[in-house]
Amino acid sequence: MAQFDVHRNLGAHRHDIPFVVIVQSQRLDGYRRRVVIPLVLASSVPAAEPNLNPSFHVDAVEVVLHPLEIVSIAVDRLGERVASLADEADRIIAAIDLVISRARR
Predict the structure, then answer these.
(1) CATH of the domain at 72
(2) pTM across the whole model
């Protein structure tokens, strides 16, 4: 399990949120939980803001990152690993920064 690995969502909302991406630093791998961000079907987010909700293709499905729904889940609740978005790390971190930065309008 690595940072930016994409796993199938096993949760109740898996039809609209087919995947989650691990954003937690690997320095914290000793914990039994992972901080993840949902990857939501692009069709479910018609007014996606590109910097906050970058889009990706995972397993032939167009999805968008939804960092406002960041959550921690138990490792044993992660589905199978299907991809890595490590090459997209800068876009993912930039979206997280938009959510947590102190910048004013």
Answers:
(1) 2.30.30.110
(2) 0.93
